[in-house]
Every structure is written in C-alpha cells, then in structure tokens.
Design a protein that fits this description.
CATH class of the largest domain in chain A: Mainly Alpha
Helix content of chain A: over 70%
Largest sheet of chain A: none
Order of helices and strands of chain A: EHHHHHHHHHHH
Strand content of chain A: under 5%
Structural class of chain A: mainly alpha
Number of helices of chain A: 11
Largest interface: A-B, 55 and 55 residues
CATH topology of the largest domain in chain A: Tetracycline Repressor, domain 2
Oligomer: homotetramer
Chain lengths: 218, 218, 218, 218
DNA sequence: CATGAATGAGATTTCATTCAT
DNA sequence: TATGAATGAAATCTCATTCAT
C-alpha cells in the first residue's frame, strides 16, 4: 500500500462526463465513417478516434457495432422525413407543390451524401438492419399522404393524369436524383464527364423536374 | 509436323490442370461473393471454396483480392455493354428502338442483380478501382452513339423533342430501373409492399416506358 | 488535489497492463529475433511468444513488422553512441584517449553481437530503413567531434600524423573489429581455427590497437 | 480419343535442352537474387524467371533452394581464391607483393558486391551452409601460404616486423576493405557522405595500403 | 530434359470486443 | 461514467515444392 497525491484535471476534457454530448459525438463520427467505408469497412477504432470518445463508450451506448449502425440509419432516415414534412407542400397548388417536393428531394440528395451512401450500404445488406427497426414504417405514411393529396387534387382540377400510384411516383422522383448522385463516380468515369460539377448538377435538377412533370401531364 | 494421339477426358474435373477453366471458375465465384457481401465483406477463402480452386490460384491469376475485384467489375460491365450492342436498336424506327432499349435495360437489371450490386459497391468506393481500368472508357462510346442516333432521327422526324442530351437521357433510363431494383429491399421495408413481386416488377416496367416516352414527346 | 490509496503490485506480471513494460519487452524480444534470423527470417509470432505479449500489441505499438525493425535499429544505434559519449575520451591525452576509444569499440562489438548482426542485415537491405529515420544523423556528430579533437591535439603535440580524416579513421577502427566479429563464422570455417575463443579475441584486440596506433604515428 | 496435329517448334528456345547452359543460367540468376535479397528474401520463382529456366529445373540440378544457395556460395568463394593465385605475388619482392595483394583485395571487393553480400548472409546464418561444404577448407591454404612466404622474406630482409600472424594479417587486409564496402549504405547514411563515389573509393584504397604497410614496418 | 499449374503449410495483418483500473 | 491496453479469432497473402503433361 502507498499513499499518493493525485492531481485531478481542473477542466473537463471536451467529451468527458457529458453523456448526451458523448453520445451525439459518437453518432456523428459513426455516420461519417459508415458513409465513407460501408458497414464492413468502417472501423470501431476509427469511430472512437473521430468522436474523441473512448471505445468502451460505443459499446456502452449502442451495444455493438451493428447497434451503432442501426442507430445511424434510423437517425438519417428520420432527418429527411422530418424535413419533408416541413415543406408543407399541401398548402400549395398541385403543380407547384409537386415541383417543390421534386426540387427539395434533389437538393437534399446533393446536400446529404450520407443518406445516399447509407441506403446503398443497407441495400447491399438486403435491408437486414432496417427490417429490425420499429420506428421506420411509421416515418413514411406522412410522405405517401402528402403525395396522394397532391395527385388527387391535380387529377380533380385536370392538371395531372389520373390513377397515378403515389408510391410509384415517389420512387421515380427519388430514382432520378438518387441514381445520378449515388452513381456519379462510376458515371463520371465511364462517360468521361464530371457529373459532380455545379452546372451539371443544375442541368440535372432541371431535367428531373421536366421528366416528372411531363409524365404527370394528362 | 507430327501426328499424335491425344486423350481427351470425358469431363474435366473442376480443379484440373485447365488454366482457362480455373480462371473462369474463380471469376464466377468471385462475382457471386462480391455481389452478396461487397468488397470488404467478401472472403477470399469463400471464393476459393466456391470456385473449387486452390486459394493460391487466386493470387496467381489476379494478384490480390483487389485485382480480382477489378477483374469482376470489368467483366460485368463488358457483359451489359456487349448485350446492348446486340440489340441493334438503330435498325428500328426511333420510338420503337427507344422502347426496346428501355425494356432491355429494365429486364437486364432484373436478370443481373450482380451488376447492380457491384456498381453500388464501386460507388461506395468512389469508383477508385474503375478509374484504374484502361478498358472501361472505350466500352461506352457505342452506347452513347446508338442513343444519339435514335434521338437525332426522332427529332428530325418530329416524334422526339429536340436537343436532348443522350447521356442525360441514358442516366434517366438507367435511374428509373436501377434505383427501384437496387433499393427494393429498403423500399419494400419502408412502404410495406413487396417490390420484388412479379406483378410489381411488370407495373414498374410499364411505368418506366411511360415516363421516358412522355418526356421525349415533343 | 485529493489523497488516494493506491495498491502497488509486489511484482508486475510480464503481460500485465503496463504499456511501457510491454513495449520494452517486445523491443527486447524483437532485437533478439532480428539478430538471430534477419529481417525476413524473423517471425512476428516468435517475437510475440518471446516477449510474453499478445501479437496484436506489436501492431499496436509499432505499426507493422518493418516499423518494429526500424525501432530496434534506432535503439541499437543509440545505445552504442550513448556509451561512446560516456567514455569522455577528450578528457585524456590524445594517445590514451585514442586507445580507450579503440578498445571500447572492440569490446562493444564482442559484447553486442546484435549490433553487428542488425547492421549486416540493414546493409543487405541497402540501408532502406535507416534512411527513413530522422534521429540517426544527429546521433553521429558527437562521435566525429571527439575523434577530430583527439586528432587535432595529437597532431599539434607531434604524437599523431597530420591531416587524418576522422571519419576515415573511425571506419578503420570499426572495420578491424567489425569484420572479424561479424565474419567469425566463415573465417573460422575457412581457416579451420576458432576465432571466437577467448585468447584469439584478446590477440585480435592487441592487434587492432597496434595497427591503428602504428598508422597514426607521424 | 482424338487425332490432333501438333506443331513442334522449329528452333530450340534459348535455354531449352542444353543442360550446361541451363545450369549456368540458374546459377547466375541465383547469385544475383541471393545477393540482392539474402537467403530468406530470395524467391525461387524469381530465380526461375531471371534465369529463363523452368522452376522444376532448379530442383533437378540443385535439389532444393538451400542446395542452390550452397552452390552459389562455393562458386563465389572459388572465384576470388582462384584470382588470388593468379597474382603470383611471391614472384615479387615482399613490400611490392604485399601491396599487390592489398590492392587486388580492395579492387575485388569493389568489383564483386555479390561476394560481400553472400558472406554477410552466410555469417548471419552462422556459416551453417559453408560448414557443410567439403571443398571450402582446401581452397584457402594457398592464400595463407603466399602471405606467410611474403612475411618471412620481408622479416628476413628487415623490411617487415617479425612474428606477424599471416591469418591475422589477412583478416586485417580484408577487414579494411570489406567493412567499408559492405557497410557503405549505413555509413553513407549516418555520416551524410557518399562513400560509393569514385574519389571516396580511391581515397579509401590509398588509406588501406598506408595502414597495412605502416603496421608491417619494423 | 522440360513445362508451369497447382498445392498446403504457414506467414503477416486486421478487427470487434473485453478487461483491469 | 470513463480509459485504452489487451485479446482471440479470423482475415489476407506468401512460398517452397510437387504433379500432370
């Protein structure tokens, strides 16, 4: 036995002893890491380093690597669905509301590469993790609801074609932007053109709106 | 010159002394494994087992895991581009030719999940491997050429709108099918509907043709 | 400030939670292994076993096998240069100081076969690893400085010949002992005589002093 | 069964069906490979490639990798000993004969890095292979004989000191050149000077002669 | 005598997770 | 709540040697 004088640090370290902050830092670091490397490619060590948190904390808050991944996935999905609701597209006339939704979707994909990347990763995994999530299903009825409303009003007023499946249409709206952005690296390589350049992105946005509205025209 | 009697085995054993066959078996097994598990998730051991070849042969023929992956990627790209050329769409009238191309693309994505999966994997990797490939760029000019021809003829005869960018259009044709198929697992989960079912696939095919032709109408 | 009771273990176990000791144990084991087997011949597994550490720790502390090798090399070089400084040869008269340096060098080579072996290994490798080291160059100016001082003083007082290159002389001092020790196995074999025997070593020591001082005589 | 026409090559391939040539090509390639990479680092595949011979031939002529290494070692040793005999130093007066031997030794080391490298490798191995060689011992008595003769005559005529051990002296002559050349990579690195440069090599040659003759002076 | 595809054993390296403090 | 050293299992890759032709 021995008596020793121990100096305790005057100030808390950045991520120390603040549960909420530690958890958020881990989640942010994990999102970046899973986005960049995929599920298998991501390193728990790297997430710990990036977040400034101790590795043990990851296991404390999220159980294991897969639990952390699922938390990232749910958080990321929730973000876009929440933003969509904030558009209040049903306050607008059908054509205008639809245009706002299309443009929002496109610009969201540009601004949030992590959403694209995580979805690609999850689909490579046959949605195994997403299927375990309770919260996910409920997140999507508002989206379907708002598209249905726009389509019905547009059909009634004669500006949209009739009998359009809202889910099918949403998939088309998403597809036109998602594929372009998620595959921009291979597309740029095979076609020898920089699809990430600002003016190419703008052209694509215009094209997407044109395609969807051309289809909806009765 | 010399006449010699050669005994030909009734059936070559899978792991026999037949380099071409060994190489092809490894490539096939690797395609399946990378498709199912991604680049990081794929196991060299599993590929060796599936192919019936000795693990050492993988390194002999392809250098390392990444070299094998690149070979798989090139082979997979070459397959779809070769099949497209075989369509001879420019032998048809513009609308018909375009419809054949759209339907082919869609059915190819259904029949070749490995193409979708490998592209998703490669994009998660920012096309790092594809960029190293010499063969890839050349593979794509015929595709752009055939779409350009159809668009020009259609515009000249008044059945298509003018000044459509052929690459932009191809991305749209691919996007409408690619996103649906590659993301069918998450889409089925979030919308609670089986997008892999036969009738859903047929409906999507019809929808894609409708969307593209509606857009092209002048 | 805080007073705390800390239990200190009577003796730390070899593989305990003591980073400094683990690192040192790995370094010691690696020195022995690289000395005995060379860079390629050394086994990471063997180093782990000899050190009592987990193999994973080697990668934790030293990056990879080559990083470990470089650490061994730097440590080994630092040891002899530090010991040389401790001789304080410039506190002596020139002839005496020179004799002390020669005898020290010879006895160091006898006592430290790892130094000889690692240098031979590194030279087979064309000093590829040493060139990457930052610390190495600085380690050697004191040595050159002390030899220069002795030579200048000796030349001034007429006991040494003039214009002797201190680096050339050091190489000669080292060569006479290094070659004998490092090549003692082949020399013993080809000349049929045990050059590792105590009296042979003593004779060589005397010879080396004779040779160097004979050369320095004006 | 199947009848097939097989074309037999009109000309022999470079290394085909010529046993002596094949064997020599393998030996030359092996010398280069063992020199550059050491025993463990050398690759049997690389030797086969460099020699243009089939890998199986290596096993046919030399048994295994170690047998090949021993053959290289013996051949290399025989070359220098044969060249020394060709000097006929005992036809000269003692000082001149000694100078010729010293200068030959130094220039041989410069011209034959494979000798230095193989000896270093073999000593790292504690001469394990050399000890197995029958031919080696006999190769060295002429060398000792010629030095003894020079020393005796020089002592008798008063130009050399008495009672010099010829083997001890040979080790010194070899050491002064061998260490410089074999360690030139690390020496250049630690002293920041290119010891491989032509003028440095010349200076060293002069120095070696000076040192040895200064020692021999009575 | 000659070929080069194939093999099995073993090497280095990676990684999620746990443990002692 | 927090730390980061330590671990075991498994991954990728290497290599001398043999085998079928």
């Amino acid at each position: 036995m021995e008596v020793r004088i121990v100096k305790r640090p005057a100030r808390k370290p950045a991520s120390g002893r603040d549960p909420a902050r530690t958890r958020a830092a881990i989640l942010a670091a994990a999102t970046a890491e899973f986005t960049a490397k995929g599920l298998k490619g991501a390193r728990v060590d790297a997430i710990a380093r990036r977040s400034g948190a101790n590795k043990r904390m990851i296991y404390h808050y999220f159980g294991d690597k897969q639990g952390l991944y699922l938390a990232v996935l749910e958080t990321t999905y929730a973000a876009i669905r929440t933003a969509e609701i904030g558009l209040h597209v049903t306050d607008r006339d059908p054509v205008d509301g639809m245009r706002v939704l299309i443009e929002f979707t496109w610009s969201y994909f540009i601004a949030h590469p992590e959403f694209l990347s995580l979805l690609a990763t999850e689909n490579l995994n046959r949605a195994a993790y997403l299927k375990k999530s309770r919260r996910i299903r409920d997140l999507h009825s508002p989206l379907v609801g708002m598209i249905s409303t726009l389509l019905e009003r547009g059909a009634a007023s004669g500006v949209f074609r009739k009998r359009v499946d809202p889910v099918q249409l949403y998939i088309t709206i998403a597809a036109l932007g998602f594929f372009y952005m998620s595959n921009r690296h291979t597309l740029s390589t095979i076609f020898g053109r920089d699809f990430n350049a600002r003016d190419e992105l703008d052209r694509r946005g215009t094209h997407i709106v044109d395609v969807v509205l051309a289809y909806l025209r009765p």
